[in-house]
Backbone:
């Protein structure tokens, strides 16, 4: 019989193409997951640096109010690991002036590619944290434990 063909001819090639497509989709998903993990890690590192700067600002004001340090700068621009942070601190007297209300605001712009996440406008998003506290000008031994 001349010209008899097998119905399975070429199936190995189709199976290989389908397997390659499934593998490609799996690798694409793993790549997306890795990129998202790196982005979240970078954002977490930036937020931790901002918290550290806010804590330093509060500590400086507390020491200044209690008389053990020089006055602190109210506006500063600080570069940490390639990210520019802006720290604004303020102190407002309350009552008879023995209590000071402190406020520290740290702002920074996300580094990385804009247009991803909640802000898809194509501009980098600005982040901000604010800390509020109060401190007494009285020494701790006067007010008690």
Residues:
């Amino acid at each position: 019989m001349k010209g008899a063909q097998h119905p399975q001819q070429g199936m190995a090639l189709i199976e290989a193409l389908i397997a390659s497509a499934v593998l490609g989709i799996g690798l694409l998903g793993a790549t997306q997951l890795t990129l998202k993990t790196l982005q979240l890690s970078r954002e977490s590192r930036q937020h931790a640096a901002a918290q550290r700067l806010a804590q330093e600002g509060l500590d400086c004001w507390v020491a200044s109010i209690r008389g053990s340090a020089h006055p602190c700068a109210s506006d500063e621009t600080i570069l940490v690991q390639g990210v520019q942070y802006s720290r604004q601190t303020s102190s407002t007297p309350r009552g008879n002036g023995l209590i000071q209300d402190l406020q520290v605001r740290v702002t920074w712009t996300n580094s990385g590619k804009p247009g991803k996440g909640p802000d898809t406008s194509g501009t980098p998003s600005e982040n901000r944290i604010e800390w509020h506290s109060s401190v007494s000008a009285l020494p701790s031994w006067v007010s008690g434990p």
In short: The radius of gyration is 29 Å. The chain has one domain: 11-143. The chain has a mean pLDDT of 83. Residues 11-143 form one domain.
